[in-house]
Amino acid sequence: MGKKQGRKAGNSKNKSASPPAKERSSSPATDQSWTENDFDEMREEGFSPSNFLELKEELRTQCKETKNLEKKVEELMARVINAEKVINEMKEMKTMTREIRDKCTSFSNRLDQLEERVSAIEDQMNEMKREEKPKEK
């Protein structure tokens, strides 16, 4: 593990921003003591004024990457919302298509019934014509 990686691994330790319960006090001497202890720990883990700028730049880079990722997430969310809208529109179209199909089926059935009636009337007319022919003779 390289020098930077070792520092990064050490930096990932979970630390609280406030001193441990024993060290908490309202006296300035204790606060100063904790601050000095805190700086001692930071030096032990590799923090120094010389690598502060490097860490600051790394933080800026991560911030930019985070913003880019947030933009991508927003874009993906917009695409998901659009996809959901399209899906809803397609569901509406499917419902409308079923309604139209049902109406067409109903219309077709009514046409079939009408054709049967017309055919029955034609048959009656033809029969009436046949009956009138013998009477004329």
TrEMBL record:
<dbReference type="InterPro" id="IPR035301">
    <property type="entry name" value="L1_trimer"/>
</dbReference>
<keyword id="KW-0175">Coiled coil</keyword>
<feature type="region of interest" description="Disordered">
    <location>
        <begin position="1"/>
        <end position="51"/>
    </location>
</feature>
<feature type="compositionally biased region" description="Polar residues">
    <location>
        <begin position="26"/>
        <end position="36"/>
    </location>
</feature>
<feature type="coiled-coil region">
    <location>
        <begin position="52"/>
        <end position="131"/>
    </location>
</feature>
<dbReference type="Pfam" id="PF17489">
    <property type="entry name" value="Tnp_22_trimer"/>
</dbReference>
<protein>
    <recommendedName>
        <fullName>L1 transposable element trimerization domain-containing protein</fullName>
    </recommendedName>
</protein>
<feature type="domain" description="L1 transposable element trimerization">
    <location>
        <begin position="110"/>
        <end position="137"/>
    </location>
</feature>
